[in-house]
Amino acid sequence: MSTSLEHVGNMNAGNMNALDNMDALRQSVRGRIGIKDDVEEDGLIYEMLHASRDIKDLFVSSFGPRGSSKIIISPTDDVYLTSDGKTIIEQIDVLHPVVTSLKELAISMDKVCGDGTKTAVIIAASLIENAAKLVDIGLHPTTIIKGYQLALNKAYDILNYESIRISSERDLHSVIENASLGKGIEPHQARIIADIVLETLSKIRDIQGDAHIDLNDYVKVIKKVGSPSIESISGMVLDERPARSDMPSLLENASVLMINGNVKFESKIINSQRNLRIDDLADPRLIFHGKERNLKSMSQKIIDSGANLVFCEGDVDESVEGSLAKHGILLFQKLKLRDMEMVSKATGASILSIRDDIMPYDLGFADEAKVEKRNDEHFLFLSVSDQLISTIMIWEPFRYGLEKIEEAVDDAVNNAAFILKNPLAVRGGGDVEFVLSQMLRQYSSTIEGKEQLAVIEYANALEEIPRTLARNVGLNEVDAITKMLNSYNKGIDCRIDITREVFPNNPPVYDSFSIKQMAVIAATEAVSNMLRIDKIVLKKS
To answer: Which of 56, 69, 59 is nearest to 185 (CA)?
Structure first.
């Protein structure tokens, strides 16, 4: 009897512990949400305001070529030192609905454009901040949404009118260099990156002509710690070592075979149900001989294919490695899927399973495959004439500098890719946002009703971009905006320059039209969706 009572007591204690753990988890989640009770009516806009201000404060100080970096420590104690908008907002461990919406905005911008995340989030947060001012003076959210939509439609027309067709290498260089500078690297580094991306683009154009291509599919970026340098290499470079040291390090006119999955003995080949009974000592020997025959068959299949350069996405058995090495075949294994896809594009090889029939037309071709060792790391340099793949190799002595330059190269490539798709640009350095804000203020005078006030606040939100750039380069923002206004009234284009001056935009600095347009549209739509919310309800436990 006492044992039964003790058992019941232990069960109750266990249930109490489970309830305590659930309650602790619930409180932790509620803390991350940042909302204690249901929020509705007037309190809702202020809840949005406080959350968006916190996010905006994180982003504005990191914006532009002179923006500051953030140190972010994740719950798993990973440390990030970055000024990249997507990285900053992804690492924020907050479940607040407004923060989540701004996160989705940043992630979608990065996914679609690869750039423009901070621009979109700063505009969105400013629109929420300005909407709160309008609610304070009695405007209903639906009126604000209508005014914002009118402003967006007009901004869309103005952006198209202000766009410039990229017609020279100098203009394209300006777009790419300006995108690189946005990651806070030095101007000379941005120029080098722009030169390399243009060189890569020129090689691709020489082969492909004016046909449409997605640059991201044909440019590989490798980053390594070492003596500082950035170089563009025609062809594919893999930071991989051969499967064995006794394999050849140089192949000319290589026949390329690509295999998906493992090249090793799988038990399901012989015994798929895993129910084999071992009744005597002969059975293990049968299994061993079956495995040996299976591996020899795989090796012979690769050898008979005529390939002397093999790429495998999975693992390769040691006995297969040895057989290939004896026949002078160079093997790389455990490759990333993206690398496999790019090698396939470069060489024309089909990606097969080891169980597939290997036909001559499945093999690819490379003019040269060379294994080199640099800074104690192995690299494969794969050259194919008249092919589009290029590799940008980045070497930096410090990991933080390496990350910044990689982010700058990514933005440069993404902007170049957008210019290839749509060769339009707008003036950079805060110029186009300032012009948009001035024209929208003029446009607001043509609108009757309270929507006029929303259009004015939309213009103010766009002006936050040049104001932020001015603050971050060390200018007084009021003086900077005044100088820009004086130039605007005289019909002179001007920008916030990294030399801490408001300069006429000559020689011009450009941004990608498509990315700028996407940032304005995405920010407006995100804020409109948030303003349509009339209540935040916490699910009761």
So the answer is: 69
**So what's the pLDDT on residue 323?**
93
For residue 467, give the nearest of 147, 123, 41 by alpha carbon: 123
- pTM of the predicted structure, to 2 decimals: 0.76
**Spatial distance between the Cα atoms of 311 and 322, rounded to a whole number of angstroms:** 15
Contacts 24+ apart (CB under 8 A), 13-19: none
E-assigned strands of 86-163?
Answer: none
**Is the confidence at residue 134, as pLDDT, over 90?**
yes
C-alpha distance from residue 375 to each of 226, 378, 397 (Å): 7, 8, 11
CB 354 within 8 A of CB 260: no
Q: Are 145 and 151 in contact (CB under 8 A)?
A: no
Helix, strand or coil, per DSSP, at residue 174: helix
Q: What's the rounded Cα separation, in Å, for the pair 381 and 249?
A: 10
Classify residue 290 as left (phi > 0), alpha (psi -120 to 50) or beta. alpha
CB 225 within 8 A of CB 397: yes
Strand segments, DSSP code E, in 412-521 are 424-427, 494-497, 501-504, 510-512
Exposure string over 58-81, b if 16+ CB within 10 A, otherwise e: bbbbbbbbebebbebeeeeeeebe
Dihedral angle of Cα 525, 529, 532, 536, to the nearest 10 degrees: -150
Split at pLDDT 50, 70, 90, the class of 32 is very low
Partners of 380 in the β-ladder:
238, 371
Q: Averaging pLDDT over each range in 28-32, 109-113, 328-332, 527-531, which range is the top one?
A: 328-332
Token pair recorded at residue 524: 């407006």
